[in-house]
Amino acid sequence: MEPWPCDAIGVLLVRYMDRREFGGDMDERFIPLTETVRALPATTPFVGPEALERTNGAVFKARIGANESAFGPSPKALAAMRDAVAEASWYGDPENFELRQAIAAHHGVGMDNVCVAAGIDSLLGLVVRMLVSPGAPIVTSLGAYPTFNYQVSGFGGALHTVPYRNDFEDPEALLDKAKAVEAPLLYVANPDNPMGSWHGAASVQSLIDSVPTGKVLILDEAYADFLDPVEIPAIDVSNPCVIRMRTFSKAHGLAGARVGYAIAHPALITGLNKIRNQFEVTRVSQAGALAAFQDPQYVGQVVAEVAAGKADIAKIASKHGFTALPSATNFVAIDVGGHEQATRMMAELGRRGVFIRMPGAAPLNRCIRVTVGTEKDRAVFADALADVVASGG
Amino acid sequence: MEPWPCDAIGVLLVRYMDRREFGGDMDERFIPLTETVRALPATTPFVGPEALERTNGAVFKARIGANESAFGPSPKALAAMRDAVAEASWYGDPENFELRQAIAAHHGVGMDNVCVAAGIDSLLGLVVRMLVSPGAPIVTSLGAYPTFNYQVSGFGGALHTVPYRNDFEDPEALLDKAKAVEAPLLYVANPDNPMGSWHGAASVQSLIDSVPTGKVLILDEAYADFLDPVEIPAIDVSNPCVIRMRTFSKAHGLAGARVGYAIAHPALITGLNKIRNQFEVTRVSQAGALAAFQDPQYVGQVVAEVAAGKADIAKIASKHGFTALPSATNFVAIDVGGHEQATRMMAELGRRGVFIRMPGAAPLNRCIRVTVGTEKDRAVFADALADVVASGG
């Protein structure tokens, strides 16, 4: 068996050399990467708390940085998952049938309007892959969800960003930008992450109505469960210009189980089904998500606990003269007066065992972002914050 | 807020119409799909057994069609997963650190040589995305793993197939084809699915050595655990021309948990890390895979049980004059004499509560493919097969 010949200059150069010489220094020129992947930086949207713990050599006392639910999933979901472990050797149902059936019934849509995947992260990747050709201009807010940006860059899209307006995503400016660059895809999160702000139903409906046929709005509603239902515009699956996204990661407390869903016009769902990894939701996660979905009472309790927690965090912040921004999520952005202060505070809190995060762009990054933890988490946060402030933080 | 203007003809035509008129008949022309996705058929690589059960209105008595492990995961993995359910509200470690550490130590490679993802299906998608530009010629065997083809088509690659040779993948012919079309990527599974055949270490090493710098071989070793270790060529991560893939879905009994890994040169792993969904392995699955990996004794038991089961299936087949092909996997391809017979037999077995599958291309599809189940599964299969044969099947 002989190597087959290659045309590329780089390949010709090394063809007759022992490739082992390149060892760990192998240049990416010798790997046949696509143009898109070759151009990507080796970055990730987030560093996980486990990586920080490994760096710090200590486990966090309060894990309130990734907007995970401190209240866990419904006991029914826990029980369903423990039971489902016995079937872990079986692939999950690639059609996610039972879960899609429950979701469709709940939202009053057809099963062909629902795509279940391994979290909104996976769905964002699929939608971008489906709609974004290399070089296509894509619009989002400056400082919004980094994983959307990661997916857009990952498929070669060109990001165009619009500043927040008073810590709110700015629908009119986003639409203007999309119009100017002729973006096929526009991303809006409502409620917003990382600021916690939100627009009401009329405003969001107006945004949806302003998207012309042939363009698509991703409406990321990961935090919709924390919003008063009257603030959420009705779902209209006859409209091919919007994809609504929901997740089990937040109010349902199943971030580690990786289950989210998209609701959209069947033509969009068909597109997603053409390219998704059919078996990607684990069997245990399918069982957990279905049980969680069927326990809205528990979600209601979580939402109430989160509301109380947000009030608590606002008090803790104001004690030191900081302002907690209004939030319709399970976290609070606290304005600490400037980016340098926020950076220093995040580091100092980390040193005291408190894992939080910070928005990634100015002027949002004058804030720290604190997830509503348990009462104990908040006590740890309050003590650490007081200590940081007392020591000049 | 006003819709932004569009240039595309289709869009102009519908701009002033009520888009709701299109309803369920919305033509894909009005969705801004990429060329690649627009061209894709709405097919999936596999129909799951659950879908067949829904169609049949009955649950299978023997689920021996998807090469899942009938012996389940290690009891230690089950326990670890049940424990980890309590942490399902936390995202998994996006770096899969502990699991990668264990994998790297076991294979004697660096952690930067290992990428963990949600099964080989996910890894195949990532590698194809990383290396395959639309139109690129990609080589595989005719009738080999359909999910590889799904991923290649899904990213716009052009599949070139090479026939099996006496039910074995044909390395020389595959290399010749790759040479002829100048394929950046070549796929070989060893042991093979769906035939169960395998090439020994020297032959596979020769294949690896024949891949020139600048091209990449995916060596899918999902079933490597069932192979005598001396039949597996040594892993050499200084070679940037090969990506070895392993899974927890087969011998480790964790198909439903979605965990697999790639071992390769750091430049290839870096490429995968640039584009993978960082959080895609669930927290429960991480715990299960780590515990399973640390229980090689259990895997040894499974492999022994599977060997006994394969001998059993060969006997069942020969009783009816059918030939069970030699297999280094957890399934057996049984030659039933022709494609029509195989098709009819699969349907008739299905009617009798036995889920099996069939290779997808001639001449392999003269066989049915039967996963080694439990003793009880095999008894159900034996009875159903006898009944099918007796009734003229």
Task: Report what the structure shows.
The structure is a homodimer of 393-residue chains. By secondary structure, chain A is of the alpha/beta class. Chain A has 2 domains: 49-69 and 297-390, Aspartate Aminotransferase, domain 1; 75-294, Type I PLP-dependent aspartate aminotransferase-like (Major domain) (Aspartate Aminotransferase, domain 2), CATH 3.40.640.10. Chain A contains 14 helices and 12 strands. Chain A has a 7-stranded mixed beta sheet with strand order 2-8-7-6-5-3-4, with helices on both faces. In chain A, strand 3 (137-141), helix 7 and strand 4 form a beta-alpha-beta unit. The radius of gyration of chain A is 23 Å and the shape is globular. Chains A and B meet through helix 1, helix 3, helix 4, helix 6 and helix 8 of A and helix 1, helix 3, helix 4, helix 6 and helix 8 of B.
Output the keywords.
Aspartate Aminotransferase, domain 1; 7-stranded mixed β-sheet; Aspartate Aminotransferase, domain 2; disordered N terminus; homodimer; 2 domains; alpha/beta; 393 residues
- Residue stretches of chain A low in confidence (pLDDT < 50, at least 5 long) are 1-25
Give the strand order, joined by hyphens, for the main sheet of chain A. 2-8-7-6-5-3-4
CATH topology of the largest domain in chain A: Aspartate Aminotransferase, domain 2
The radius of gyration computed from the alpha-carbon positions of chain A, rounded to a whole number of angstroms, is: 23 Å
According to CATH, the homologous superfamily of the largest domain in chain A is Type I PLP-dependent aspartate aminotransferase-like (Major domain)
Instruction: Please report the total strand number of chain A as a whole number.
Output: 12
Assembly of the depicted chains? homodimer
User: How many individual helices of chain A?
Assistant: 14
CATH architecture of the largest domain in chain A: 3-Layer(aba) Sandwich
Q: How many domain regions of chain A? A: 2
Major β-sheet of chain A, in short? 7 strands, mixed
How far apart the termini of chain A lie comes to: 67 Å
Question: How much strand of chain A?
Answer: 5-15%
Helix-strand topology string of chain A: HHHEHHEHEHEHEHEEEHHHEEHEEH
Largest interface, and how many residues on either side? A-B, 123 and 122 residues
CATH top level label of the largest domain in chain A = Alpha Beta
Helix/strand structural class of chain A: alpha/beta
| Helical residue percent band of chain A | 25-40%
